[in-house]
From TrEMBL:
SUPFAM superfamilies: Acyl-CoA N-acyltransferases (Nat) (SSF55729). Residues 17-164 form the N-acetyltransferase domain. It comes from the Bacteria. It comes from Mucilaginibacter pankratovii. This is GNAT family N-acetyltransferase.
């Protein structure tokens, strides 16, 4: 497997979006959607600390985290990446969009780019995503992108996997 970190942080482009490294200047825009271990940031300081931890995970070969940028406007629309390591040639995708960009196709494009990167560049054999049963938008998105439900993790969470 070709795990991070890479000599140059990978930028992925396609159909009006760019996936790129999160920069310090991006933090204010990302506060509403900054999470680490399921806990949200509520302040600039918390979001900055979370990004420091995400950057350390990348340096430790356990993750890669991109911001999603609309190339027409240069606006950040959300984030996504692989988290929690790459054990058993598996990568778990996590993703979140700023509310004003939901339903406009940004995440579909970003997930497709990230899945292809995981399979073709990292060399993963499985790409998974975990969401809650109540997150109907995520369930619909994953289903539309050919992820199949593989198991219920508990009474609230479900794991999905890409289907070739």
């Amino acid at each position: 497997m070709n795990l991070p970190p890479y000599s140059q942080f990978p930028q992925l482009t396609g159909d009006g979006i760019l996936l790129r490294e999160v920069l310090p200047a991006d933090i204010p825009a990302l506060i509403p959607i900054s999470f680490y271990d399921g806990k949200p940031a509520t302040t600039f300081a918390e979001a900055t600390e979370m990004q420091v931890r995400i950057d350390k995970d990348y340096a430790d070969r356990n993750s890669i985290h991109w911001c999603i940028v609309d190339t027409a406007t240069s606006q950040i629309t959300g984030t996504l990446g692989y988290y929690r390591g790459f054990a058993n040639n598996t990568g778990e995708l996590g993703f979140v969009l700023l509310p004003r960009y939901q339903g406009k196709g940004y995440m579909s494009k970003a997930i497709n780019l990230a899945v292809n990167f995981g399979l073709d560049i990292i060399g993963l054999s499985r790409v998974t995503a975990i969401t809650t049963k109540q997150n109907l938008k995520a369930v619909q998105l994953l289903t539309r992108l050919n992820f199949a439900k593989v198991k219920e993790l508990n009474e609230d969470e479900v794991e999905y996997e890409t289907v070739a």
